[in-house]
Specification:
459 residues; 11 helices; 5 strands; 64% helix; elongated
Length: 459
Amino acid sequence: MEYVEVDSSQIAEVGFGEGFYGPETLGIIFTPNRKQAAAGLPGGEYAYENITPRMHRAMMAADDIYAYFSENIKKHPESFPYVKIETENPPQPPSSPNGGGVTNGMSTTKPSKNSTSPTPQFTATDGVDAETKTDPSTALAVIDTMADDLLFTPGAVTDAQLAAGREWYLTQAKKYDITTEKSRTELKRFARPLQKLRTGIEARAKELTGATKRKIAAIDAEKRRLVMLVGGIEDEVLRPLTEWEKEEERRKIELMNTVTMLADLGTWSYDNISAIEEQISYLESFCVSNMQEYKISAESAVTASLKVLKTELERRKVSEANEAELAKLRAEAAERAENDRLAQVAKDAREHAEKQAAWQAEIDRRKVEDAEQRAKDAEAKAKADAVAAVEAERQRLAEAAARELAESEARAADEHHRNKVNYEAASALVSECLIDEPAAHCVIDAIAKGLIPHITITY
């Protein structure tokens, strides 16, 4: 694979061709980071799988190579697996579908015959069979030399093989005296090949599992792509039928909704008779022949709704007629009650007027009587005074005259005060009781004379 320099802030060189993943491997050498630049080292090198020549050309022609690479390749490791290329010990491409040495997003190195083998090394004194010249430890060491797809095949590693290796290691381990620090260290060093073999098996199993998962992911992705393409073709083939079915479904739903609406017209609540008559007219003029296969259902719905609406219409008409008659009767009763009230008011007014007239006549009569009585009283008093004056001693005539004068003035003052109080009381009656002034004076006189019980006037 040949690399070419590119104009990018993140990528230094790009290569495409024969590489880790075969003839369609994309190689990326990134720009060194600060630590690498300070040590004089190049940037990391990565190999990407499943890159087509068209994608390589599109990336190289992009305005921003790194942006194209990041958006279309880097973000999709399930479609484009990658591995970091180690400079000193580069990974070898997988030799079989099950023998990959790549784990997405990690730098790994596949154990190979060129790498350091975990096979334990022994000397001639470590238990070599002198007759067969065969190292018993190879019963386990051969596991590391097996291909991945063979190693993890059930039965490839036999129980006898494991038992022979186990027996040899246990026999050799008994030779170490663990009472001394040096022997314990040598025993640990002796068992180290087993640890390396175990971790190697785990690493190779992990790598093989990752490769299998990637292959399954690639199969699943291709399955989805093929299913999508075939499904698109199927959709195109069936589109006229699908569109017809959708239109047919829409038409049936529309007709079913119409049938439901026709049936529901009889269950609606209407504010007045006009609304009911309007719906009856609509139902009677509805053309059921346009309902196609729902014609019978539409006819049944129209008939049922018309029956309900006509019944409701008759009930509403009877109810409104009854209400109108009841309103008429109520109006007549109210008119009669109003006439009776007015007649009673007029009668009460007449009776009140008659009582007022009688009361006024009585007041006038009493006034006349009071005037006559006052005249009689005055005449009698005058006669008495004259008799008293005649009979009084002449020497006291002057004093009597003076006393009479003083008394006369006092009476005049009292009379004036009385008249003033009577006038104010009469004015109050006129303003507060809404009676005329003569009647008010009559009331005051009656009170003054004690004709009205429990009411007095203090002068």
